[in-house]
Specification:
Blueprint: H1 5-11, H2 14-26, H3 31-35, H4 42-54, E1 58-63, E2 66-71, H5 73-109
Length: 110
């Protein structure tokens, strides 16, 4: 599975991860409601939401003058699948490194 660098760059920011947590816990939110729960301005929240929207991890719907943001379940599942794939790749690499280290250790003992 190919890793989406833009997605991981977007969720690599701690403020954006906190926003995703809030959106998941609350079932959605606006820039205003999120800014009340975060130590950043509404304008900063709006910019972070734009980044998350651009990579598709959140989607927005209009409600009067506000935009309500929700986490895209499909994109979240895709991100989790990518993370699992990366984890499996690193597990395999570490297993090979361990096998090499054990072989070196055995050959130096013998």
């Amino acid at each position: 599975m190919a890793v989406d660098d833009d997605l991981w760059s977007a969720v690599g920011d701690s403020t954006r991860r906190r926003m995703l947590d809030l959106l998941l816990n609350d079932g959605g939110g606006t820039a205003t409601t999120l800014s009340r729960q975060l130590p950043v301005t509404r304008q900063a929240v709006a910019k972070h939401l734009a980044v998350l929207h651009r990579v598709g991890i959140v989607h927005a719907k209009s409600s009067g003058r506000e935009r309500i943001y929700e986490v895209s379940q499909a994109q979240l599942a895709r991100a989790v699948a990518q993370l699992s794939s990366v984890g499996a790749t690193w597990d395999a690499r570490l297993h090979r490194i361990r096998a090499i280290a054990e072989a070196i250790q055995q050959s130096s003992e013998g």
